[in-house]
Amino acid sequence: MFIIPVGDRVNWKRPPVVTLLLILVNCFIFFFVQGADDKHDQLAMKYYFSSDLPDWELPRYASYLENGSDAEESRLFNELLSKKETATLRFMENDDQFMRELHAGNIITAQDPVFESWQAQRAEFESKRSFTDHYVYRVDERNMFKAFLSAFMHGSFSHLFGNMLVLFLVGFLVESVIGKALYALAYFVAIYAAVFMYTLTADGGSCLGASGAIAGVMGLYTVIFGFRKIDFFYSLGFYFDYVKAPAIALLPLWLGNELFQYFTKDGAHIAYMAHFGGLLGGAVMGALYRWQRPALIESHHKEAESKEMDGKAFQRGMDFLGEMEFRKALGVFKELQEHHPDDANLTRLIFRAAKADPASEDFHSAALKLLASTAMDSATSNSTHAIFQEYLNSAKPAPRLGQDLIAKLAKRFAGSNHCDDAEKLAGLLQRMAPQHIALPGVLLALARGHYREERRDKFEATLQGLISKYPQSVEAETAASMLRMG
Predict the structure, then answer these.
(1) Which class is domain 2-27+149-292?
(2) Could you say which of 42, 141, 459, 484 has the lowest number of CB atoms within 10 Å?
(3) CATH classification code of 401-486
């Protein structure tokens, strides 16, 4: 069974920094630190079987098994013993109890003549082992640093990919609600909650991977989002579908699934109880957060619901626009604009919808708002020019271009290779208000536009006109200098 929430899209204006950083750290350790594991393992194995260690350790392990209660394990190991291959050593090392006794000096004791040589060779062998072998968390050691580091190591690419996918899908949702600092703290606490539960329930062995910590994020998610209905993707065998349900309903499902897997798949080499511990730890942290900051959670959920409603309304407006129901589309977009007054895209859509009635106040106000845009990038300038031409040709009874807007548009068009329209606007402004304070700047911008477009005659004529009509202006001094330079 696989169940995962599929919520809001990532807001890249406020990216999930901690989630992305955790993914990068996990990937870095797997590809660039654990990436050398195979090489180190080969060197370590080569050293082991060229040393005296196999002669000292493997026969003692065979005797240890013979004296034990598992005759089948003893038989299997004796079949491997004569080969003295890597599998023989792995068989022995997977026996946590024997390895604990071996490292404690209870198998090859201090009274044994080979003890000092064994100690030296064993230490040399351990020093050659891979990063993963050195730092993986082992229940028998209970090393808290290794517990932390193991949560950033993985056994295979598929293990890494699955974990990072779930972390991204769930992590950014939680981070967006509780903030970066608390989210990072919760993630680290979940690591130890997972390790604690695994240590309580495992007879031995090792544990690595981000699964327990990610389970903590999932547990945190279910409590933070509580009874808010969320879309979930689920699969049962080959069947999969989407369902909307309260987020908290996932917690018992996830916990029950981990317990079921733990009791029915013994020996599957998956730390189900680490997942279980992470889920519980995350749920507890979520409950504490809800207790301390209920208003913040409620505020976030209201904002998310508002965005969801806006998204549905926007799609409805686009549908009306596609069906040429312009009045209905206009009503939807104007209502949305009340909540998002600075959204330029909504203003453009209102302009499109209101164009069906070019004498309307909505058409004029939308056009003027778009033409007054302060953004100066080339895309905006080209869009502004297209809207200007459309407004000029469609507006009824006539365009409502004020003097300041005319000056602004003339400068914009002169700087974006639309000098013909800039020249017309400059002439219009000179007729409407020959002493307008912006006119010298408009003429200078127009001259520069002509120069870029290699219109030499118009370049010189515009500069001379500027000097003649506004001789006391700073722009006139600049114009004279430009003429002298040729």
Answers:
(1) mainly alpha
(2) 484
(3) 1.25.40.10
Q: pLDDT tens, 182-237? A: 999 999 999 999 999 999 998 777 888 999 999 999 999 999 888 887 777 777 76
Decide: residue 51, CB within 10 A, 0-12 exposed, 13-18 middle, 19+ buried. middle
pTM summary value: 0.64
Enter the tokens of residue 189: 């606490």
Give the model confidence (pLDDT) of 115-164 as tens digits: 999 999 999 999 999 999 989 998 888 899 999 999 999 999 999 999 99
Calculate the average pLDDT of the chain: 88
Percent of the chain residues past pLDDT 90, beyond the cut: 58
Residue whose pair of structure tokens reads 């909650």 in the numeric block: 193
Domain ranges in the chain are 2-27+149-292, 29-133, 295-400, 401-486
CB-based burial, 314-331: b 16+ in 10 Å, e otherwise: beebeebbeeebbebbbe
Taking every pair of C-alpha atoms in the chain, what is the biggest distance, in angstroms? Answer: 113
How many angstroms separate the Cα of 75 from the Cα of each of 43, 107, 373? 29, 20, 83
pLDDT band at 394 (very low <50, low <70, confident <90, very high): very high
Q: Mind listing the pLDDT tens digit for each residue in 441-480?
A: 999 999 999 999 888 999 999 999 999 999 989 999 998 9
